[in-house]
Amino acid sequence: MTTEEKINLLSTYNDIDILSNEQFLILQKFSNDKDETVRSMSAPFLVHFINEDSKKVLFKLAKDGDSLVRTEAYDSLSVFPFKDVEKFLRNAIGNEKDELARRYSILSWIDVVIALSLVNVDNMIFLKNIKNKEQSDECVLSCYYGLYLFGELKYFKNILSFLNNDDYHLKCSVLNYLRELKNNKNKLEIEKAISPLLSDSSIAVKDSAQRLLTELSR
């Protein structure tokens, strides 16, 4: 099977609600493929199999030499609520050199901590320490998002402050987080903060802000 055929096969999996054990074996095989695109495309589909075998494959992919492969693996590990996954992601946060991959290791670690009911003082301190050491705005923003989810509501204003950043990618990230965090208590504050973005120079930011305002008005 050529690389193109493998990529085309993986693309068909997007239209399947429940993957079979036979398809898992294919994903397992493709996780060792020489082509990084094939390996990276395999990782997201492993969320269909929340078990030890799938987890081992994702651990391997999360140590891949290609940063996109690692990013996809970290992202998929977010739905594996196991203590060894929490430990693995915690270590990845400290060792991951790629900014995007590190961001996803942080976000997935947050999800796993919450799923395991491990929100405690130690994990809050860990996340604050990561935030204080971070040089990447995207990763700092992810830390603020996690601290808010951990119950540190004072960090909501820190999240909103990134809407003033010149980087449209960062503003889009904030809007995506706000979409997850919105509730009746912060609704008006979000509306006030994002309304100026309707005249933003970035079409992506304007569209995302408009969609969120529409959601808030329902």
Radius of gyration: 19 Å
Q: Quickly count the helices.
A: 13
- Shape category: globular
* Helix and strand pattern: HHHHHHHHHHHHH
Mean pLDDT, nearest integer?
97
Question: Pairing-aware structural class of the strands and helices?
Answer: mainly alpha
Question: pLDDT below 50 for ≥5 consecutive residues: which ranges?
Answer: none
* Beta-strand segment tally: 0
Largest pleated sheet: none
Quaternary status = single chain
Strand content: under 5%
State the distance separating the first and last CA atoms: 49 Å
Residue share in helix: 55-70%
In short:
This protein is an all-alpha fold and 218 residues long. It has 13 helices and no strands.
What does this structure look like?
- The chain contains 13 helices and no strands.
- With 218 residues, the chain is mainly alpha-helical.
- The mean pLDDT is 97.
